[in-house]
């Protein structure tokens, strides 16, 4: 069973990408650089290959975390983190990821390969990068296994969900004056650089003392002291609130212009807080206990499974947008998470021991099984969607080729005049 019904395949040929970028940094600094950088790529390189190259750099960063900081994935979380020079490689790789993620669309237009597959491929890679960067940035901020890291995961995924929800209802991808793909990534790059210079413990420095605001009695008495990393999380919360408001205003104006319901789209946000509540419920028992998943080596695999389930859900939202299908309210991976969350909380719910996660060893097996199921589920989604789109449109995924009316593969860039 595929993800694109036969009756909506025709909508793939009607799809046209629409984007609005209000970022000053992007418009006046990064975009001129991107316009130059894309010219260095040969026209025989497919845009999706560029996108995949960018994701591979992030995967490399994650691999270095596992290799140089095994304590983060074992019981020895208090062990020294990765060597400080590793953070510089994270900064360089993330900046290159942003660059490659920004020029893949330009390469698509250069080669005549722009279309719905590129939209799906690009956003799919972005969805995977979101969780990986949460894990890496939380390590660089010295947050470790904590509820702050959980909050960071929820907030970052929320921003991605908002953007996808907004595009589904408006037909346009909006990047505001401060957006995750531009300013957000640059901030994380800065975090990596600072951790590379001073070490991640620098983020434990008190915010008020660092900014010298503690010398002002009114502020010192009204604002509690918190670490720079905690202050950054609070700042992220305000950023999320701002994005919620701006995203809804864009949807409101779009629905008003089209004569559609202006408040009904808010219901389409409900799936996200429900899924977050399920994951938090799973993590919450036993609360504040060292035996819980939150404070164990299972925390990173848990976040990865959560991120893959999220990628599957937003992938279906993006697919619904490009094929003009109904909004996907339900995702099958919820069942797995609900089972895990209810089972872990059986002592709280009915006063009996968990049926599945009854011992630390069983919990370990179940979390890693959850990760494996999440990987397989998302991989199945990717393979089936790519297969359906490439077969129907007669295009290749990772090469610049198209089928002509006789079914003969030809270079995509030869079929139309390149306008760039």
From TrEMBL:
The way it spans or sits in the membrane comes to: Multi-pass membrane protein
Task: Spell out the GO cellular component terms annotated for this protein, sorted alphabetically and separated by semicolons.
Answer: endomembrane system; membrane
Supply the InterPro entries for this chain.
CDP-OH_P_trans, CDP-OH_PTrfase_TM_dom, CDP_ALCOHOL_P_TRANSF_CS, CHOPT
Q: What is its EC number?
A: 2.7.8.2
Query: What are the names of the required cofactors?
Result: Mg(2+)
Q: What class of enzyme is it?
A: transferase
MF terms (GO), sorted A to Z = diacylglycerol cholinephosphotransferase activity
What pathway does the UniProt record associate with this protein? Phospholipid metabolism; phosphatidylcholine biosynthesis; phosphatidylcholine from phosphocholine: step 2/2
- List the catalysed reactions: CDP-N,N-dimethylethanolamine + a 1,2-diacyl-sn-glycerol = a 1,2-diacyl-sn-glycero-3-phospho-N,N-dimethylethanolamine + CMP + H(+)
In the UniProt record, does the keyword Transferase occur?
yes
**Keywords on this record?**
Membrane, Transferase, Transmembrane, Transmembrane helix
Which Pfam families does UniProt cross-reference here? CDP-OH_P_transf (PF01066)
- State its location(s): Endomembrane system
Regions crossing the membrane: 41-68, 173-198, 231-251, 263-282, 294-315, 366-386
Task: Say which family it is in.
Answer: Belongs to the CDP-alcohol phosphatidyltransferase class-I family.
State the name under which the record lists this protein: diacylglycerol cholinephosphotransferase
- Taxonomic source organism: Jaapia argillacea MUCL 33604
């Amino acid at each position: 069973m595929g993800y694109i019904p036969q009756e909506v395949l025709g909508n793939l040929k009607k799809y046209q990408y629409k984007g609005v970028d209000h970022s000053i940094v992007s418009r006046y600094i990064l975009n001129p650089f991107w316009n130059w950088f894309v010219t260095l790529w040969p026209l025989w390189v497919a845009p999706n290959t560029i996108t995949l190259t960018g994701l591979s750099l992030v995967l490399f960063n994650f691999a270095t975390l596992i290799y140089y900081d095994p304590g983060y994935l074992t019981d020895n979380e208090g062990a020294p983190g990765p060597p400080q020079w590793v953070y510089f490689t994270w900064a360089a790789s993330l900046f290159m990821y942003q660059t490659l993620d920004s020029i893949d669309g330009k390469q698509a237009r250069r080669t005549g390969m722009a279309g719905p597959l590129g939209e799906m491929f690009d956003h799919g890679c972005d969805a995977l990068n979101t969780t990986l960067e949460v894990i890496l940035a939380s390590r660089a901020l010295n947050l470790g296994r904590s509820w702050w890291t959980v909050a960071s995961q929820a907030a970052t995924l929320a921003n991605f969900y908002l953007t996808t929800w907004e595009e589904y209802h408006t037909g346009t991808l909006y990047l505001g004056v401060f957006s995750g793909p531009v300013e957000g990534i640059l901030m994380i790059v800065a975090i990596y650089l600072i951790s590379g210079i001073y070490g991640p413990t620098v983020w434990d420095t008190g915010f008020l003392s660092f900014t010298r605001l503690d010398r002002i009695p009114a502020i010192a008495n009204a604002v509690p002291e918190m670490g720079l990393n905690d202050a950054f999380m609070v700042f992220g919360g305000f950023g999320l609130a701002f994005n919620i408001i701006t995203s809804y205003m864009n949807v409101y104006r779009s629905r008003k212009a089209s004569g559609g319901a202006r408040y009904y789209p808010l219901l389409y946000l409900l799936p996200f807080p429900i899924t977050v509540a399920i994951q938090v419920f799973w993590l919450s028992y036993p609360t504040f206990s060292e035996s819980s998943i939150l404070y164990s080596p299972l925390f990173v695999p848990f976040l990865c499974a959560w991120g893959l389930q999220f990628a599957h859900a937003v992938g279906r939202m993006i697919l619904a947008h490009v094929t003009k299908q109904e909004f996907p309210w339900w995702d099958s991976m919820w069942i797995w998470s609900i089972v895990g969350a209810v089972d872990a909380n059986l002592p709280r719910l009915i006063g009996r021991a968990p049926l599945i996660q009854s011992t630390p060893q069983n919990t370990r097996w179940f979390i890693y099984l959850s990760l494996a199921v999440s990987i397989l589920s998302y991989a199945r989604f990717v393979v089936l969607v790519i297969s359906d789109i490439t077969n129907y449109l007669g295009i290749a995924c990772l090469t610049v080729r198209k089928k002509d009316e006789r079914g003969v593969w030809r270079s995509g860039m030869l079929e139309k005049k390149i306008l760039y």
